[in-house]
Amino acid sequence: MHLGAHCVRVTFSDGLVRELDLAGLVLDGVWARLAEPEAFARVAVDPVAGTLAWGDLDLDPDVLHGDEVPATGPAPVLVRQYRLRPTG
């Protein structure tokens, strides 16, 4: 879910919810085309990869989850993290 500017909220299948600031990502290279908040707001979940995507650009879900560091470029900045409580 887009939260404004370059921030997103991602909910994972294990119940982890992370709010991330990805502003550092859009500073240069192929990601620079997302520098404008309107372009960044077009974020969607890729139905095959199950990760955040902007057309042909996508992010490693393990990096978004916090399990890995990016191979290149800056890591997302964690704004908030919590777990959903199981129901039922």
Helix/strand layout:
Elements: E1 2-4, E2 7-11, E3 16-21, H1 37-40, E4 44-45, E5 52-54, E6 57-58, H2 61-65, E7 77-83
Antiparallel strand pairs: 1-2, 2-3, 3-7, 4-5, 5-6
Describe the structure.
The chain is mainly β and 88 residues long. It has a single domain, classed as NE0471-like N-terminal domain (NE0471 N-terminal domain-like, 2-Layer Sandwich), CATH 3.30.2020.10. It contains two helices and seven strands. The strands form two sheets. The chain has a four-stranded antiparallel β-sheet with strand order 1-2-3-7, with no helix packed on it. Strands 4-5-6 form a three-stranded antiparallel β-sheet, with no helix packed on it. The longest helix is centred in the C-terminal third of the chain and has 5 residues, at 61-65. The chain is globular and about 45 Å long. The chain starts with a strand and ends in a 5-residue tail after the last strand. The mean pLDDT is 92.
What labels describe this entry?
single chain; NE0471 N-terminal domain-like; 4-stranded antiparallel sheet; 3-stranded antiparallel sheet; 2 helices
Based on DSSP secondary structure assignment, what is the total number of beta strands? 7
- H/I helix tally: 2
* Main beta sheet strand tally, sense and closure: 4 strands, antiparallel
Task: State the fourth-level CATH superfamily.
Answer: NE0471-like N-terminal domain
| Unreliably modeled segments | none
Mean pLDDT: 92
Distance between the termini: 25 Å
In short:
The chain is mainly beta. It has helices at 37-40, 61-65, and strands at 2-4, 7-11, 16-21, 44-45, 52-54, 57-58, 77-83.
